[in-house]
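Intended use. Records such as the FAD-binding protein entry shown here are meant for training and evaluating sequence-to-structure methods. They are not intended to support clinical decisions.
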Amino acid sequence: MVGLGTCSGGNDNGTGIQMAQAVGAAVRHMSAGQVGIAAVPGLMVRGMVVNSHGQRFINEDVYPGLLGQAALFKHDLKVWVIVDEQAFEEVPEVERWGTQPTHMAETLTELEMLTGMPPGSLESTVTQYNSHAENGEDPYFHKSPTWLRPLQPPFAAIDVQKGFVPPEGGDPGSSAAVFSLGGLEVDIDGRVIDHDGRPIPGLFAAGRSTSGLHSWGYVSGTSLGDGTFFGRRAGRVAATTSDR
């Protein structure tokens, strides 16, 4: 759908969903995906994330997957991480995953030119951010005061679209990796539902092949909950169902 790599243990390739669809199964939330972007959380939270217009669009200390969803689905990955020298150096080198600034500049005006952002856009964003950060506040996105401080020159911009450089070197990897948060429609006991809202006899599903509990609100571990809790329910019902 988005032409990016997948987050998967290797076998989560959608075949389970396709097999069930072949016998009439309905699906839900197939437009939703979990997104891991090629940006170091430690850098994002110490600086800011802006779109191609130089505007912040999210709280940088949220769960990184939510930031990735916003970056991909709302801004087509055309986003930048803006940091200063202190923010960059505070993250240990081994934790930067080879990330290097795409552009560096002594002034925000110069950084706007290098990144192609509209004149005055990034300068306005940083000026407002710094003004509130001096008071430990972020009235627009409510970042934790722990991470708030005014950004000072020199500045750096990291292009998220360029991807990570692997620790062992080589070419940068994909700028983002995605897995579907949608899947088969099921009832609370794991029965797969058809397009008329009726259970398909003998067909059960649980875990990431189903639409599950979350779509846009996924956090790490949710798939385990979907798989274990609803998988247990499905197994119990399947064991006592005559049409299995």
